[in-house]
Amino acid sequence: MVQQRKMWHVTVSILLFMVILAPGISSAGITIATFNQGTGSLSVDGKVIYRHEFYNWFEAPDQPNDNNDYSYFFTRSLLGLSLTLPNLKAYVQGQDVHMWGLPDDAVAAAPAGTLGPGAVYYAHGGQEDFHSTIIRQAYLEIPRLFVSGLSARAGRFDYVDGLEVTYDDPKVKWLKEMRLAERLIGPFTWSSFNRSFDGAKVVFDHDVFNLTGFASHPTQGGFENDAHESMEDIDLAAVTLTMKYNKNLCLPNSEGRLFYMYYGDDRTMAKVDNAPAGSGPNQGDIEIHTIGMHWLATHKTSSGVLDGIFWGAYQTGDWGTLDHEAWAAAAEMGYQFTQYPWTPWIRAGYFVSSGDPDPSDGDHETFYQMLPTARKYALFPFFNLMNNEDLFVQAIFKPLQQLSVRSDLHFLRLHEDDDRWYQGAGATREEDIFGYQGRPSNGDENLGTLLDITLNYTINKHFSVMLYGGHMFGSDVIENSYDDEDASMGYVEVTFAF
Predict the structure, then answer these.
(1) Measured between alpha carbons, how far is 253 from 433 in angstroms, rounded to an integer?
(2) pTM more than 0.90
(3) In angstroms, how far is the first alpha carbon of the chain from the final one?
(4) What is the pLDDT of residues 200-234, one digit of tens each?
């Protein structure tokens, strides 16, 4: 109780500090010097994120270390320095994270395992409180390489699959950021420590299309405090071709994208899959080739805007000694009533990814999500996009210009009842921890129903507050691992940026 009161006192202090400070900032990013007759500049940017998370996780059978009801909080501060010249850009960004109140008694015996994200953080570091200061990004960029439109970047930077091209249109921007990007590769910015990518990116940007090539080693991070280290045993590469929105005369108001991604994992640790108990370790490396596409389109009518997206991927390769072959697809449609109060936006969709129907054969057929920002498609992150079916409806409202409200209802199942219920967001550490967890299904498919709501209030262009609450009405699969199949999660997040 004393610890909880202390956490609340810190929460209130940080909120008050940000509210007082926000009006004093006058620009998004600050130019601190110009030179070479205005062709060069030196600027700084920054961001402070504070989040207090609350969990009432699925209740494990009565045993030691079964604390499923806890909260913790963290602050993440980012400060960047940018040098811009006519033929070169250099950028370095530092990150400082303080984390308090992680539970030291929330890792139960199998199959319950870690009881929520707080337990996962603690399992990585073995501490209730963390402090981490790292170089988050450090790269050189050549904006014009030989010909107009060709650019290159090398060093440590963020890479977001699906956002190779961005637009000013707010609807298209939201659809790309929230419903297409980071399904397979992302910096996992919802986590406290994030991940970065050490490598190079080459872009050819034309008026009509964008071609991007990328190769890297990801860093540790996500749930891992030591986020500065590069994971050299993991190789990552991607090539994407994007036909830009509203540049196709045959199909106006649409964007199409083709992609190829390679994931190679040489880490020597047990792979998380549905191998039978006692079958021994699956030796060998993971090498997965993924090809896929997405399509986004909008259409204006007299009363609003219709939108639709499709995303699909096919995988082949090796899962250790097993042959890997898997797939995933998503289809969504929505309509925003722009002529009505609160401009209601109603959307619905379905996602499905393959699972492995036979754990004893020589094939691995569970779709592998690689290195995503998992929570984007699972706002209550007790599941991910592996062996998953998700039928959902969502509603988005704007009661005020500065306030948006989003509510989702998800009906969740496993695609294959002989496979597992998977959680996680990919590799977070070079050694010891694989990055995904799998719990037994015991021949069941139904996970349950998730209802959640998100409120986002933008005070000004520098200061915003987000509130989230979600409740899972669990079913058969969850009952196999927990005494109480229902769970809840909530958080308050404050962001201050310049």
Answers:
(1) 44
(2) yes
(3) 36
(4) 999 999 999 999 999 999 999 999 999 999 999 99
Q: Which amino acid is at 458?
A: T
Residue 13 host element (H or E): helix 2-21
The full set of domain ranges for the chain reads 2-497
* Residue 394: closest CA among 446, 352, 351, 457: 351
The pLDDT tens digits for 228-249 are 999 999 999 999 999 999 887 6
CATH, range 2-497: 2.40.160.100
> Please, which residues have CB within 8 angstroms of residue 101's CB and are 6 or more apart in sequence?
3, 7, 70, 71, 72, 73, 128, 129
Residue 109 DSSP SS3: coil
Q: Quickly list H helices, 132-169.
A: none
- pLDDT tens sequence across 401-453: 999 999 999 999 999 999 999 999 999 999 999 999 999 999 999 999 999 99
Q: Give the type of residue at 381.
A: P
DSSP 8-state code for residue 78: E
Show the CA angle centred on residue 366, arms to residues 360 and 371, nearest 5°: 140
What are the φ/ψ torsions at residue 78 (nearest 5 degrees)? -125, 135
One-letter identity of residue 495: T
> Residue 173 pLDDT > 60, yes or no?
yes
Among the listed residues 56, 54, 57, 58, the one whose alpha carbon sits nearest the alpha carbon of residue 73: 54
Q: Which two tokens stand for residue 26?
A: 């006058």
